[in-house]
Structures are given as structure tokens and as C-alpha cells.
TrEMBL record:
Keywords: Membrane, Transmembrane, Transmembrane helix. It comes from Tenacibaculum holothuriorum. This is Molecular chaperone DnaJ. It comes from the Bacteria. The chain crosses the membrane at residues 7-32. PROSITE patterns: DNAJ_2. SUPFAM superfamilies: Chaperone J-domain, TerB-like. PANTHER family: CO-CHAPERONE PROTEIN DJLA. Residues 189-251 form the J domain.
Amino acid sequence: MGKFAKWLGAGAGFTMGGPIGAILGFVVGSFIDGLSIEDLAEEQQEYQRNTQQQARRGRATSGDFEISLLILASIVIKADGKIDRRELDYVRMYFVKMYGKERANHAFKLFSGIMKKQISTRQVCLQIRQHMSHSTRLQLLHFLFGIAQADGQVIAPEEQEIRKIAGYLYINEYDYASIRAMFYDSSNSAYQMLEISKNATDDEVKKAYRKMAKKYHPDKLQGLGEEHMQGAQEKFQKIQAAYEKIKKERGMN
């Protein structure tokens, strides 16, 4: 079994089964003749037997997050009926930044195959929702908006697809609007990030900031590994910047 198959088998957990596993089996089978999803599952089990830091059974691993990102990214990129090179480059750049060049190359090889596959958004999201925490699902949504904006703007078909994904992932309207506001520069964006209106009192602003800082704190994603801390830090910093902007506009201490 080659390096690519070993990377995939070692990194994933829950994504080896269900509808996501079926997608992986189709894609990997087209790369490596005779290799099945069962072969990859055996590779994963061997990896877990030989590592000292096993993921708890049923909990998402870094590899699960990686595969879920790739599949959801393919849905958003194809939402407008065309594939923009800038969006593909964003995915590659993001993965190189998170995982390093070698692992990112493996991921992008898988991504190229996923892009050719017809995917049921609902089925994939239901599987992700069962195994990923709320904080992890918010991080997925943040990444998807970043992809959509990579070509300069988030167009209507892309946002419609992201909103549909958010619904299937049980991300409520307040959380959705908060993350969406991080990618739109409007007079109301800072308030939307904190999930409050412009009519909020100064005390309500402070309370909202504390709540959102806790919700988006990078420690919420510690279970996925250090490679995901940078993406979580970006969200956290945007919340801090939104709070500072409101404080400055209001002359708050």
C-alpha cells in the first residue's frame, strides 16, 4: 500500500464509514486499482494500535476534519456551476499552512477526485453532525466562507449552499450570521459577530463579547491537534477586533 493510502488510513476515523466512506472508496479506488475502503480501514486500525495517542472511539480526529473540509469545500466551489482557480488555490494554501506540503499534497490529490464526484450534501452533513462538536462545526463553516470569498466575493449560489450546510449541521441562525459577518465589511458587521443589535447597551456589549470569546476560544478545538489552532485563532481575533471597534465607536472604557 502506497504512501497516499497510508496517509488516508492513518488519519481518518468516523469518515471511513457511512456516506463519506463511500465517497472515499470511490475516489481512492480510481487512484489505486484494487484498493477498497476496507483496506483503508485496516490501515487505520493498525495505526491506532501502534500509536500512543489514540482518538476516543467515535470522536472526530484531525483526519476526519480534514476529509470533511475537502468534501464540503467541493460542494461550495461547485455551487455556481464553475470551478474558480482562486478557490482551489485557497484550499491548497490553507492545507499547506495547516499540515505542511507533503500532507497537503496528499489532501489535494484526494480533493481532485472528490471534485469529480456527485455528493449528497444532506447525507454527508448528517454524518459529520453525529461525530463533531458544535465548535468544530463552526470552524468548518468559517473555512467554507473563506473559500467562497477567495475569488473576491461571496456570490448568492455559494452563500445558499453554505446556509444549507449550516442547517444540516445544526448551526443556528445567530451563529451563522456571526461567522458570515466575519467576511462582510458593513456598518453592522461588528454587532453581528457579537450576536447583538446596535441598540444593545454597553453592558450588553460587554456581556456579548465575553460569551462570544468563550464560544470561539481556540481551546475548543484542542482535540483536533495543534494544526487547527491557527484557524481557530483567526475567528477569536475577529471577535476581539469587533469588540474593540464597537468600544471605540461608543467611547467605552
